[in-house]
Amino acid sequence: MVKAIKVYKLGGPEVLQWEDVDIGEPKVGEVRVRNTVIGVNFIDVYFRKGVYKAATMPFTPGMEAVGVVTAAGPGVNDVKVGDLVGYAGNPMGSYSEEQIIPADKVVPVPPSIDPTVAASVLLKGMTAQFLVGRCFKVEPGHIVFVHAAAGGVGSLLCQWANNLGATVIGTVSTKEKAAQAKEDGCHHVIIYKEEDFVARVREITRGNGVNVVYDSVGKDTFQGSLDCLKTRGYMVSFGQSSGAPDPVPLSALAVKSLFLTRPTLMHYNLTRDELLKAARELFAKVESGALRVRVNHRYRLSQAAQAHADLENRKTSGSVVLLP
User: Which ranges carry the Enoyl reductase (ER) domain (predicted)?
Assistant: First the structure.
């Protein structure tokens, strides 16, 4: 038996229960991993609340972790016992001391990368990788607008876009987060509680608008994000921390011939080759110093409810991890 977080009913952080579970042994094509560091992401909150539907009830949340392989099932050839591996995405279940994972879903963690850094950056970092490199290809001269610029993904988006030669505009909630966003490559930081971000973006771009908006906030910012785009601009909605956006009539896009997409990491890492390539590129960015990973908050795994409460109440910045 190992300890894990279980969810028996949807709701607030209090529904996260700490208990004993039996995870069994790996079957064909699977490995058993003893987690050493677990990443916390807003998608975990979405599943806990029922915004996204878990395949089964009860379930163990968590989409990201780094750990050591302790057993391998039949047919596993490229992962062995003792390997340090990371994983990000499906299957859900990383809020556990140990877990069973398909071997083709784990990636090797280079010795040069601290496991805490790897566990805090894998999901968010591969998300940033596909958002700036494949969903919309950021190039020198582009103007990029990032909501929640001091958040886990937002921080990495700002750094990556800046590294690619773009001008980066970001929104934050406090002066402290504004200072962090500046360090992370934001050329213009908007404290949205003090300024109208649409008006400020128009001022910064001299009325032209931005090439792309990366919006993880959703309902509260969606229409404003559309208003910030230039003609033929790209609206990338990849989260909804404030709730689901209202329905958008196609005519709203026709005003400026806008593009709208709602991508997920899983659809951009469908194959093992895509997954390994994304992880390699991410770790190379971290190793080179192009990406600074801030692990600002650490909680015991048993304190997952407190971690969720702080994340939802915007008391966190950078990455949040759980320690078994």
Answer: 11-322
